[in-house]
Each structure stands twice: as C-alpha cells, then as structure tokens.
Amino acid sequence: MQPVSKNYVLNGNHYFQEELKFIQFKELLDLLLPLQNAFPKSEKESMNIDLLIKLFGQNFLRAVATVLIPEGKSVRERDIERMMEDLEVESLGKIEAVVADFFLLNDLHSHIGRITKIMGMLEGNLGAGREKKKSTG
Questions:
Q1: Beta bridge partners of 14
Q2: Are 73 and 14 in contact (CB under 8 A)?
Q3: Residue 44 in 3-state DSSP?
Q4: Mapping DSSP to helix (H, G, I), strand (E, B) and coil, where does residue 27 land?
Q5: Helix-strand-coil percent breakdown of the chain, rounded to 5?
Q6: Average pLDDT of 98-118?
Q7: What is the Cα Rg of the chain in Å?
Q8: Please, which residues have CB within 8 angstroms of residue 11's CB and are 6 or more apart in sequence?
Q9: CB 28 within 8 Å of CB 63
C-alpha cells in the first residue's frame, strides 16, 4: 500500500509531504520547463538525486521546498524562501529522504507524461502564435 503522507523535522520546523497538489505541480512545471531537453530519454536513465541536483542546479532546494507543506498550514500558505533556508542547513541524507519520498508518494511516470503533454501543448500554442504573427505581420 502506498503511503499517504510523510513527515519531517527540518531545522526544528515540522513539514509534511503528500501527493502533489495542482499548485505544486504547476510550480514544479515552471522550474522544469527550461530543463525539458535534459530529462532522461529512456527508462534505463532513471531519476535519482544526483541527476535531479544536476538538472535543477541552483533551483534544486526550491524544487524540494515546493513539494513540502509546513505543518498547520495549507499549500497556499507556504513561504518557499523560508523553507529553502530550513533545507540549506539540513543533512544531505534528510534532503535525499524528502526526494525519495516524493517518488513514493507520486506516480512519477504519470507526472512526466502530464508534463510532456503540457509541454507539447505549449509548444503547439507558441508555434501557432508565431505562425499567426508571421501571417498578420
């Protein structure tokens, strides 16, 4: 049975993680769009923390903070910058646990499929907009 949520204490503050809410998905998508060509192209190239750190670069802690929710707050009440400060002083082991739990709590293949579909739609819309500008301009 898949876990429903995971709890963490990061820098003395309590957080939990559960299946992504749409707002979190959108925030991650905003971070991922510039990286779309860097994602593994096959099942053999698995997602792991080293690859995620490489992909996200300076936005890695922002991505990790995006999936967390402070205890007693809603997903809309998160202060991502403050949460990143809590993550900065934590061990790599704890951060790796948050990332590993993300994969347990979320159907990654389904999310990647959704991201790919949305990216395709965005590219189609952008391409159609460019074509429209060319024909009217």
A1: 9
A2: no
A3: coil
A4: helix
A5: 65, 10, 25
A6: 78
A7: 17
A8: 85, 86, 87, 89, 90
A9: yes
Q: What is the DSSP string of 83-135?
A: HHHHHHTS-HHHHHHHHHHHHHHS-HHHHHHHHHHHHHHHHHHHHHHHHHHHH
Q: Is the full-model pTM beyond 0.85?
A: no
Tokens of 65: 């903070």
Which structure tokens are listed for 84?
């990143």
Q: Which of 74-78, 86-90, 109-113, 114-118 shows the lowest mean pLDDT across its residues?
A: 109-113
Residues 29-66 have pLDDT tens digits of 888 777 666 665 655 456 677 777 877 888 999 999 99
The answer, yes or no, to whether residue 80 has pLDDT greater than 90, is: yes
